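Re: S-adenosylmethionine structure - here you go.
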Amino acid sequence: MTDRLVDSFGRVHDYLRISLTDRCNLRCVYCMPADGMEFQPLDEILTYEEITAVVKTAAQLGVRRLRLTGGEPLVRKDIEALISELSAIPGIEDIALTTNGIYLAQKAEALKKAGVTRVNISLDTMKPDRFAMITRGGDLKRVLDAIDASFAVGFAPIKLNVVLMKGYNDDEIDDFLRLTLDKAIHVRFIEYMPIGHDDDGWRDKYLSLSTVTERAVALGMPPMKTENVFGNGPSEDFRLPNARGSIGLIHPVSEHFCGNCNRLRLTADGNLKPCLYWVDELNIRPLIGDEQAMRDLFFKALKIKPENHEMAQALERQAQSHIPTNRRMSQIGG
Ligand code: SAM
Ligand code: SF4
């Protein structure tokens, strides 16, 4: 390895989040607008060969860990073939998947065989009606089956992503906390982020994650700080007394986590995104095949990477230093 991906603030980047598609089989209220999305034409989406080429270059620059996300990554056909290719790339040590779980039970075994080591499953509520409301039509049972299948095939760790929203699921914090008592599962509470839409009631639904710690204390189970549960994430991790599982708090708004940022993002249409929040991105697709040009673009992406996002300023309606992205979360991958 000749060069490493270190940005102007000394942050080493060894993690690439790859959005495989902007399409999804759900329409979560915090992720997509009520009137739907216009999806990108399929010929604008990177092919598996193109994704593999980008990852080969990234691996030569020190990227070790990948996360496949979307939209919903499991709506892409034959994703196992891509994962096999990616896991054979020298230097790639870990391939994780973020999924809504709808297709996971049926694919878990094949994904494990292909090289997925661990999964994050999004689950914001354990009530079937509410799940259908938040996801605009999803079937909770399929996600619960996905969790069982993930244990059965041995993904480890298994993490649940819970986006906390005032008036939607804040009355289920206790249930999610208790879930970690008996199950070796990692429940990650995530603050609702204003990605692509800080103008449609986001502020009313936003809730700081201090609520979660307060609930744990009120339940007589003060959370104890623990080592970071294996992953690449920005979460602050805790364990309740005698719990088998653990809790993660991802609070980008109330307390940004940018100091340790180790990640770049690749959108489904081939843009390298230095930061989740800001508009800046660089298209790598036309450069695929030109190794040097691709490497240069990675370094250019690092060069324009700002020190931090400013979601807290968005909450307070304060002026910001850059322009926020107008992509929705489903177009970036979270
Ligand atoms: N479809 C997959 C899923 O839902 O897990 C992967 C893509 S999704 C965009 C990735 C993660 O982003 C999910 O855990 C989702 O809950 C989270 N997410 C989406 N919109 C969000 C928002 N506005 N604020 C916080 N998290 C969000
Ligand atoms: Fe789809 Fe995931 Fe966005 Fe929900 S959060 S709409 S499942 S991409």
